[in-house]
């Protein structure tokens, strides 16, 4: 088997505006739903105390330090960097008719800096945030009018950056809206299934419309969707467990189905009936949904087990209550580590859709520390990433078409779920703690040099030791 990746494979890393930029109220930026989730995506919004700074208000200060950070990414050899545009930098309230020029200028400068090093921008239009004004006064994605406002925002940035950005994503982890209502949807936590699925439907229509806009405005660009993917293994070989695993996987596959095939899958009809959900879907909605994405992207952090037995022991991980797989180990945050799962996932998605695949998030959150000699020895992260990349290479050998890999996160940033800096993912250490204390100085971790060699060798330096690889 070939031990290297394709020559045009897009190696890189990923971050998100609301987790890394900071500068939350600079140059005309409006407040987003993320700015009100001061304790993270897992928690309801809070009223902001006047003059009080929260961890994401500064985050990693990427807004002011991006030239330094992009130079470090270039030193590693990045071919691409995934980040997002903060909607509220462009339209502070979301319903303006004229965009904020200062916000547009910031991303012009950011993309120019990336292109200076031949790093292709991979840009997410909405990453777990929307203008707070729309959530408070319009009902967020529960209001059909938000489709038009999002389309205006997307069209603005497509026209502005059409010569700089050729890779786009619509919504980050769009399926996360099923369990995190405020940040992604602008809905109150605890909203009914009816309200949540109607808001999700509006997002799916908006996604299809901006895909069409991208195809029209930037014909040589590629635009995809993004789903939080989690393989579900039957806990036992009992048929009931197998059916439960299939049901659980369909909860997130449905989002791929709509955006890759252009219509709702038939299994969702029964699901909506069981949830007492009756969606308002117009004939124009159905027509809009036929505009499908060019590629499928996803995050992968772990797998889970499914059981029809309600008494099975559960552990908390990645916002959800998950049944523990007895054959796997777990991270400090209880996320089970399953490298073979990414190979299973890539093969399953390729078999199901026959569309190019892009791994846009995968990584290990850990409590890194600086040693007395100044080094940061994150061999545990190297092992995690090595084992996953070996399995990606296996999936490519199996026949899956994989465009690239952007590990999460390229540099330490604020955790989306719980607003922690101590849950570190990056190749680059940022000197800031959970209280917001620190110099913000950057330090290369051990994984920095390792990933540099992975990219330089096109994966030839990966150590294949997983028994599931063939």
TrEMBL record:
PROSITE patterns: GLYCOSYL_HYDROL_F1_1, GLYCOSYL_HYDROL_F1_2
UniProt entry keywords in alphabetical sequence: Glycosidase, Hydrolase
InterPro entries: GH, GH_1_N_CS, Glyco_hydro_1, Glyco_hydro_1_AS
Any one GO molecular function term: hydrolase activity
Catalytic residues as annotated in Swiss-Prot or TrEMBL: 361 (nucleophile)
Family assignment from sequence similarity: Belongs to the glycosyl hydrolase 1 family.
Protein's UniProt name: Glycoside hydrolase family 1 protein
